[in-house]
């Protein structure tokens, strides 16, 4: 595992934000209780998402979608969307969400 100024490289870089307000969501939020059932794993330059009853999704760790400003707790930050993962996660959760990667350090 590689370490940078903020701890393990890549840790806590990806997140789910609701599509309406671009607010970070965790399993503690109503309607997002299934998030811990998603199994993410890194394979070189690829991120893989797996969940029971869903076909796995493997994608580049480099996001290709829109830049979104998201709120994480009380802070705002820039993120970039993983378009295909957003569709996969929205289908899995049954609600429209964005799967994003925090931009910058």
Summarize the entry for a quick read:
The protein has 105 residues and is mainly beta. Helix content is 10%, strand content 42%.
Low-confidence stretches: none
Strand/helix succession: EEEEEEEEEHE
Distance between the amino and carboxyl termini = 17 Å
Oligomer: single chain
Structural class determined from secondary elements: mainly beta
Q: How much is the radius of gyration in Å?
A: 13 Å
Outline type: globular
β-sheet strand percentage: 35-45%
Largest sheet: 5 strands, antiparallel
- Tally of DSSP β-strands: 10
What is the average per-residue confidence, as pLDDT, rounded to a whole number? 85
Instruction: Describe the strand arrangement of the main beta sheet, using strand numbers.
Output: 4-3-10-9-8
- Indicate the percent of residues in helices: 10-25%
**If helices are DSSP runs of H or I spanning 4 or more residues, what is the number of helices?**
1
Tell me what you see in this structure.
- 10% of the residues lie in helices and 42% in strands.
- The chain contains one helix and ten strands; from the N terminus they run βββββββββαβ.
- The protein has one helix at residues 83-93, and strands spanning 3-4, 7-8, 14-18, 24-25, 39-43, 46-50, 57-60, 67-72, 75-81, 97-102.
- A five-stranded antiparallel β-sheet has the order 4-3-10-9-8. The protein has a three-stranded antiparallel β-sheet with strand order 5-6-7, with helices on one face. Strands 1-2 form a two-stranded antiparallel sheet.
- The relative contact order is 0.24.
